[in-house]
Design a protein that fits this description.
The complex is a heterodimer of chains A (169) and B (326).
Chain A lengths: L1 H30 L2 H20 L7 H19 L5 H6 L10 H19 L2 H12 L4 H8 L3 H19 L2
Chain B lengths: L4 H6 L8 H17 L5 H18 L1 H20 L9 H14 L4 H24 L5 H21 L3 H5 L5 H13 L1 H18 L5 H55 L4 H21 L7 H32 L1
The chains are: A mainly alpha (169), B mainly alpha (326).
Keywords (chain B): Membrane, Transmembrane, Transmembrane helix
Amino acid sequence: MKRVSAKIENNFLNAYDLYSDQIYRHCFFRVSDEERATDLVADTFTKVWQYLAQGGEIKNIRAFLYKVANNLIIDHYRKKKTTSLDQLAEDHNFDPPENTHEKIEQESEIHLLTKTLDKLEDEYKEVMIMRYIDGLSIKEISEIKEESQNAVSVRLHRATNKMKEILKI
Amino acid sequence: MKIDLNKFFKKSETISFSKEKKEGIRLKLETFIKETPVIVQEVASARNEFRWFVYLSRHTAMVSVLFVVFVVGSTGLLAEGTLPGDFLYGVKTNINEQVRGLFVGGSQDRAEWNLELAERRLVEIGKLSAEDRLSEEQREELKRKIINHTDKAIEAVSLKEELSGNEKSLESRVELLQTKKRETTPFVEIESEASKENLEQVGVQNNEEIRVRIEKSEEKINSITAILNNIKNIETARVIHIKALIIKARESLYEARSDLRGGDEVSSNLENADRLIRSAEEIINNIPENTNDFEIDRAQESAVNKSTEILKEGNLRKRVLEDQER
């Protein structure tokens, strides 16, 4: 029994090492707040562990992590604790690059990206982040969202058009 | 400005966790994991199920034997509640009872076992009667078995000689046993002597034991008497039912005759009489045969004759009336 428990612990920590960056990125672009994104990552993994500790079974840990993170983000929006993007830019923990010309340009592009995404409706923003930032397939998104692949594809198509419209491409 | 979406999103890859924060959360998670260990009950139970499977597959022979025992046992158990004519009745009488009989030893136990068998057959007669599916053959067969079992029980309580000089009918058995019951003192003496002799042969001379044996014998006699009386009651109820049918048939016949002889509306009366006679005939024909009751058999014969006679009379009168009308 101890061996089984140790194996589950080991798998869980491996999953953290492997996916925590992706989950963080997802959370960051969803909530546009680095601190909140960090908290969401910690909460996501804590909740997943609680589920495992109670004997729950997970077939696809990556999809499950996104699902949990997604629910927590929804909760976050319900609480309406958003912070401005300006504060984000000022945040020192934002992996601040050295103020080289290249880094400044990169930062401004990220700024543009988050701003553009913020202009999208949440349902469009969510699928765009999952598809283009998290690199999830349509099938994976449909599993996380518990929707049909067709519904996800349609939404993604609309979101892309909307984004092009915003960016005036 | 033309922006490639893929390139546009590519920039997002620069966003990542700071190493300190990532390590910080990892440490917190490790602590949390220690505080909240995994409940591995389900895994353990799944393993247990697997162990059962392994155990069963390794002991195929034993499992097969257990399976056969289970099937035979449950069939035997199911057969216990069956009645003559049921699918598993043969299992009940030819296997269950025969096997149990093999384990019965000693005269008292044998008497008791035979009484139980007689009682079982009696219960079967009662149930079949109540369900209205007791055929003549079944009744005769069960009756024969009851007599057979009571004979064995009687034999076991040392009354064989008393019975040997009598006609082997149910009535004679009941009478014999009732007489024995009424004559308590001589009966006890006979039994006492018989028991005493038996006991002396095996070296036991204890009056208390003799008394107990006699009491047990008396109990058996009472049981046998009760069984035989029950059979008699069933027989009596059947005879009463048949007699009632005959009375009904007779009433119909007399009513028919009265219709034929009286009134001006001869045609309608004749029609009515004809119907009554048919009804009487139907009742008589449905009375079971071989009733072993002389009175019933005679009444049945007489009723049939009477109906034939009345019908003839009626048809003759009908023809006369029709001629007159012409």
